[in-house]
Amino acid sequence: MQVPIQHIYKPSREGSGLLYAWFLSMHTRVDIILYSKKTEGELLLVVNRIYDALCRLEKMANFYDPTSKLAYVNRTAFVSPVVLSEELYSMIDLCLEYNEKTLGCFDITVHSENYNQTTIQSVHLSAEDHSIYFSRPGVAVNLSGFLKGYALETIKSILNECVIENALINMGNSSVLALGNHPVGTGWKVNDILLHDECLTTSGNDSSERRHIVSPRDGKLVEGARQISVVTTNGAIGEILSTALFAADGEQRKALMGIYAHCRVYIYPPC
């Protein structure tokens, strides 16, 4: 049986120590580096909190897990309104908000039956009782283009609560949180990009054969081996933007890069 969490700890002469831990979650490998004056045991407790938080998010919002709360919503919200937890409600509400803020390029309903650009208008939230209702059959909400970025923000909250000032969290090289500094330098360098209290989120295809992002324009998989990375201070927003920028056409991408000019955007290979 595989041990869920594995780790290595290295103390330093200055009284601080570096803990490197890794485990599998959200269909990817999660690598964690914590640099702190806390003991090995204390840092392991932090890692365990992170692990438990990711398991909770996956159980709540994994589109592909038939036992998740989100899967239940997708099966039943057309029949009658489904009351959501405050957290899941706020996640879906934010994604609906950013559908408009990304010119429709980020759409959590692209995996619906008979999808078109108006499908998202069939998702109705009630702020009064935190419920969700679909006004037509076949609608499905998929948070996959958002969940890892949201997870980074959840992890950041845990690290702040535990007073961990220097940390690097890497979820499959596509969703990265960097806090504070590397033990021997300023910030953290990831793929030649220097991060300091920032998140790096990447969306795209690493080959012409491996495609997974659906275009809201036509409901088809986006073609081409290209990746887009975004550096932001908020991982959830960064995940949304990288997904939207990848799904956008040239004109939409130019417009979005103007709207979000405060974010750093990297396109590979360059246009």
Automatic annotation (TrEMBL):
MF GO annotations: metal ion binding; transferase activity
Keyword Ion transport attributed: no
Domain of life: Bacteria
InterPro entries, alphabetized: ApbE, ApbE-like_sf
E.C. numbers: 2.7.1.180
Entry keywords, A to Z: FAD, Flavoprotein, Magnesium, Metal-binding, Transferase
Gene3D superfamilies: ApbE-like domains
Presence of the UniProt keyword Magnesium in the record: yes
Catalytic reaction list: L-threonyl-[protein] + FAD = FMN-L-threonyl-[protein] + AMP + H(+)
Cofactors that this protein relies on: Mg(2+)
Pfam family, one: ApbE
Signal sequence region: none
Enzyme class: transferase
PANTHER family: FAD:PROTEIN FMN TRANSFERASE, THIAMINE BIOSYNTHESIS LIPOPROTEIN APBE
Protein name: FAD:protein FMN transferase
